[in-house]
Amino acid sequence: MQHVKELSAKLKEKKGFALKMLIGLDGFVDEIIHPVDKRQDYKTFTRIKTIGEFGERITKAAGLSTNIEMVTIQTKLGGNGPILSNALLEYGVKLTYVGALGTPDIHPVFHPMTEKAAAVYSLCNPGLTDAYEFEDGKLIMGKHSSLSSLTWEVCKKGMGGAEGIAKMVGECHLFGMENWTMLPHMSDIWQGIIDEVFPLLPATAEKPLAFFDLADPEKRTKEDIRRAMGLIGKFEQKFRTILGLNEKEVYEIAEVLGITISDSSTDKLKDTVVAVHKAMGIYCLMVHPVRTVCCAIGDEYFFTEGPYCAKPKLTTGAGDNLNAGFCLGLALNLDPLSAITLGACTSGYYVRNAKSPTFDQAIAFAEDWDAGKV
């Protein structure tokens, strides 16, 4: 693909960039878990490979009972905001993080991230996640009670009031507040920013970017989702607003917004993305199915195949890494097709190596992808 071939050259021209970003608000301690199928001895086991197999195991236990062993493969930082931030920091962004990293002390899993960050504001304790990994996807089991203490008043108190927040936001190229679904007061926080921070923001020749990721809104009511979409739209007053979704989410948002796309459409994904983007009135809607990435900006639609990995080392966080690459691309003023391609490279590297790439590693990955080596 020509745009993959061209990406590495475009990135080389951007080396040595200086970007500031402010990201929040969640934080999770993730345990990456493999459910056991058969155990050969106390060290060796075969895992349950697919979600379907796992579902069959559970279904067979109905009316009876069963015991499924879970093996923790890794304990790591989690949450959309921290994983997104970790990837951006690896790229060399000067980043401030605000969120649920632990109080009074930051949880040790976040220390590598916070040591690289320009500044950190930890406002409450993190949530906990059990991530059951399979070859065809993952099941995320979350414990979120600690996040209910993260309110607009707590944000203001921890960040120097509306004036302190405005100063931080006003100095950034990109501002992001992630994981609306799991933060029960996020809509109120957004409303507080609109009401109290927007009037304090300086006028700029070009509006900075604002990035939002809902994180699977299925469990929230349609009224909640509709309100959140309206608030995200209002950020367009001060920002070039980006909403990042996966394929499942974009169809859910379309339904909430009353958008119906016929199943007979020759490209249902494109038609849905374009319609949701237009309905929301925002700068950009980016959607990442498992094997592809696309976005709508202005009146244009952009699409790329991705470097699909059949047997990933790690999938939890793949979407956040894609978001990081895409956001970095737009912040570097890459064209939209190059930005989604950088997102695909970032995610592609991450699932193969279980870590985020550096800028040089992303360039090398793009070259390998173009050469058919990934």
Structure description:
The protein is 40% helix and 23% strand. It is α/β, with parallel strands linked by helices. The chain is globular, with a radius of gyration of 20 Å. The two termini are 14 Å apart.
Q: Please state the overall shape, judged from the principal axes of the Cα atoms.
A: globular
Gap between N and C termini: 14 Å
Q: What's the helix count?
A: 13
The proportion of residues forming helix, as a percent range, comes to 25-40%
Short description:
This protein has 374 residues and is α/β, with parallel strands linked by helices. The chain is built from 13 helices and 14 strands.
Question: What is the strand and helix layout of this fold?
Answer:
Layout: H1 2-13, E1 20-25, E2 28-39, E3 45-47, H2 51-59, E4 70-78, H3 80-91, E5 94-99, H4 111-116, E6 119-122, E7 127-134, E8 137-143, H5 152-158, H6 161-170, E9 174-177, H7 186-197, E10 209-213, H8 222-234, E11 240-245, H9 247-256, H10 268-280, E12 284-287, E13 292-297, E14 300-305, H11 318-331, H12 336-353, H13 359-370
Helix pairs in contact: 1-12, 1-13, 3-11, 5-6, 7-8, 9-10, 11-12, 12-13
Tags for this model:
13 helices, globular, 374 residues, alpha/beta, five-stranded mixed beta sheet
